[in-house]
Amino acid sequence: MSKKIAPTPPPIEANPRPFAYRNRLLHCDGADLAALAAEHGTPLYVYSARQISHRLQLFKDAFAPRPHTICYAVKANSSLAILRLLAKQGAGFDIVSGGELERVRKAHKPALKKVVFSGVGKQTWEIDAALEADILLFNVESEAELHLLAARAEALGKVARFALRVNPDVFAETHPYISTGLNEHKFGIDIKAARAIYRKAAKSRWLDPAGVSVHIGSQIRKVDPFAAALTRVTSLIADLRRDGHNIRYVDAGGGLGIDYGPRASTSAAFDPAKQVAKYAAALTKGLGTEPAHLLLEPGRFIIAQAGALLTRVLYVKKNGTKTFVITDAGMNDLIRPALYHAHHEIIPIKQPAGKSTLTADIVGPVCESGDFFARDRILPPVKPNDLILLLDAGAYGMSQTSNYNSRPRPAELLIEGDITRIIRRRETMRDLLAPEIL
Ligand SMILES: *Cc1c(COP(=O)(O)O)cnc(C)c1O
């Protein structure tokens, strides 16, 4: 795998910002966003390849002292071109479905060897496909799933390497919808029950108890919970070794959070390199002298800040005292504000000259009151036809799009230095209706 690593890693700056004004016009690296909108239409997702590589490199550097594989969480952004970019720089992948397995195969087949398969509801066909692909590790989330895995491995004559995804009962402060590490959540297996399950599993010649896995949630900003979870996992691994299991992998999951806050304050406060270094120190503390090969499953931290959603203002309207800015992007294009009350910074494509502002709700055209991007947001004045950018939308943006209200999905562009590549064309009316039968 070492020969596949990109020849020149990007220079490590503290916090390179792909989206910045140049001559008062917003650019993504070398590309002028107004020009991209004119050529490709809106709404439009734009990603910086340089930023994606940079974030991957931060993890590689921070974890260089120990054997590790970075298994990018495909669900954060599953565009084939982005998967290929990461795979060519040595990344593996964390998948949660047979569809994501297919994406990895298509993006970069050799990366199948570096796939870990998570998820509470794996189906027979998905397990079969992953066994045939000879993936690295199944992260098993229940005893029933383990039984199915053993049966399918036997049927296909393959030995399945597995880790139990244990639930460490650790609290991590984040939105309740993306917290997963407590007993009350559907994820994983109670860590206290794990040892007995490994013992039973080891009796099957079709199951290889190869690791232990944990994932406590997403958008976690403080690193202490990661250390606490790994301390518990490491002590379980010691028990498992005593029981005679050959544990080679410890999977620490993903979940490291980013700063979605206003730019002015974050530029000084948020230093991604420091954040990854702190995260690595926390994991190292939790692992102690544990020598197992470390698997990491970052999604958001790699891709969120590399991407943004470009949208055009359709209308500005007043209802009583409230002002609404209505954009051509809606909740079907970016659901995070509606689903998690997530904050996305919104900036105009033309750098404002004056200091005047407008307080408005930024909303989409979808027929739902939940279809908003921001409420009572202070913005520079905008008028119909202006372009605005929703920042930090690279993760859980495009991958959570839908066709709700029969709206075609947006196009996606990848900026590679001075080169702009269409990595997904805008959906057409034909695409929209294709699966239907009249
Ligand atoms: C969603 C998920 C991840 C990625 O989480 P991020 O917060 O995007 O880093 C990693 N592992 C598992 C099992 C997940 O479900």
Automatic annotation (TrEMBL):
For binding pyridoxal 5'-phosphate, which residues are annotated in this chain's numbering? G255, E297, P298, G299, R300, Y396
Record's SUPFAM superfamilies?
Alanine racemase C-terminal domain-like (SSF50621), PLP-binding barrel (SSF51419)
Q: Which reaction does it catalyse?
A: meso-2,6-diaminopimelate + H(+) = L-lysine + CO2
Keywords carried by this UniProt record: Amino-acid biosynthesis, Decarboxylase, Lyase, Lysine biosynthesis, Pyridoxal phosphate
> One GO molecular-function annotation for this sequence?
pyridoxal phosphate binding
Family, according to the entry, reads as follows: Belongs to the Orn/Lys/Arg decarboxylase class-II family. LysA subfamily.
Recorded protein name is Diaminopimelate decarboxylase
Whose protein is this, by species?
Answer: Tunturiibacter lichenicola
Record lineage: Bacteria, Pseudomonadati, Acidobacteriota, Terriglobia, Terriglobales
